[in-house]
What does this fold into?
Amino acid sequence: MADPRNFLPMMPKHIGVAADHGGFELKEYLVRMLREVGYEVTDLGDLQYTLDDDYPDFVVPLARTVAGGEVDRGVAICGSGVGACIAANKVAGVRACLIHEAFSAHQGVEDDDMNMICLGGLVVGHAFAWELVQTFLHATFSGAERFQRRLAKVAALEHQETK
It folds into this structure.
């Protein structure tokens, strides 16, 4: 039997990011910081500041990339973070949350297996956003039975037909 002290949870290594104009500046900062500390980053756009772009055009491809396992986790940013969160959660297999404080950045992963963090580029400063992203990326899902049971109920909702 393996010594449990030798078990280290697998940390995410490949991170997807996406933002509209409201999150563009913060996205550029976070991409730079992620790469500086060794993460592989896939930037799904917007790749230039475009005032009239729309968050679903970038967040939905990111969400599909996360759900498909092409990246380990995702970071989505719009002006408030709300629209990015709404759009991301329309994709089956995505568990995204708007995060503006540290407790939920790790608890959302530990208890709810959150795989996308959504931030407000006009709400959260660069340094604090970086702290939140690091907290999110260093957290691991506990796998406790009660959390797995709850997630199975949520996943079942994704497969129900609308009436």
User: Anything to note?
Assistant: Residues 145-158 form the longest helix (14 residues). The radius of gyration is 16 Å. The mean pLDDT is 92. The chain has six helices and five strands.
